[in-house]
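Fresh eyes needed here. I'd like your take on this protein's tokenised backbone:
***
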Amino acid sequence: MKMITAIIKPFKLDDVRDAIAEAGIQGMTVTEVRGFGRQKGHTELYRGAEYVVDFLPKLKLEVAVPDDRVDAVVEAIADSAASGRIGDGKIFVHTLDQAIRIRTGEEGDKAL
């Protein structure tokens, strides 16, 4: 099993969710986060004053998938989150040692 973590632009969430569903994955966790990479933030004008926004709003998606679905899900996220502009995000794939469904006690791929 693998845990796929993706940082994406907020307006891409619906596209990514639909792409993940088409890849056969039923659930994911979404967290609102703030950060920056090469994008380095930007300046904004508010009531005549200019200020720097260092940390940009992003969404962090976490999806647990069986090993045989990893490539399909990574491709689905990458294709649907891409806008071709700086700040599109990143995808990380981690090994997931164990998963347990609390309600039934199922373990491993069955718990996903």
